[in-house]
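Side project, low priority. Logging it here so it doesn't get lost.
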Amino acid sequence: MTGADMSTGDGDRPGSGGGSRPAGSADSDGSEHGAVPDGRPTLAVWKFASCDGCQLSLLDCEDELLALAGAVRIAHFTEMSRATVAGPYDVSLVEGSITTPEDAERIRRIRASSGRLVSIGACATAGGIQGLRNFAASGSYVGTVYAHPEYIASLDTSTPIADHVDVDFELHGCPIDRRQLREVVTASLAGRRPAIPGYSVCQQCKARGTVCLLVARGEACLGPVTRAGCGALCPAVGRGCFGCFGPADTANTDSLSAQLRRHGTSPVALTRLFRTFNAGAPAFRRASESQPAPVPAAAPDAGSGR
């Protein structure tokens, strides 16, 4: 998979209002025609290479979204409305990874027009599932996915937002948790640091009384090294955690890898276990690359032209 096979843009430029505007849209200074100046803080939501699931978590807030819409001016959110207001913006939420040269330019413009910038989701914080191409030979995935890879203009890597601009906060998850998103937006508008846990899924398992799958059944589970946020959903139904929320603050992947090997997990299986949604997160990347027999990189595709 490449980042080019997912939509990477909102179809506009930050601060420009973007394309044709409906009645009541913004002038270049952000004011609306015939409207009383709005003193509410402005919120913008931006998309790069991603599936849209994390920004849709904002719409999943449902009743809380109505209260949010009353407290802030949602200036740009193309999943919700085509109407846009020109920047600058008090808070920008950014979903998706950087996969094209145009992405790299656009995120710099968004950063320049945003007071606070928050990256949301595994794609924006770790490169996402499309970041698997970072482990393969250049061009091998695009040549496999597309019949005419010569029409695809993308970077060889899929990288998180923080690799390109300063990020004020990273909210992890695939997808993110809507309650955590609400806390991040509230905290960002209040000028404080969000109260988001950095402990592991294991703590959530214990809180809900879930029997440890790793200890009781010897099942491969990333819960001990994965950031809490999902409510330990997978272990609760008898399935090992596969790391949707990325590494916990104190993730000891060496210890977990050794324990899983004692339970019979092969090095190749371990590598694959760490290479999913957050394969590019430093702790998971180191863990996957440190296994005795890593998964070999794909060979370059002759049709890729690279």
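Brief comment: Residues 178-190 form the longest helix (13 residues).
Revisit when time allows.
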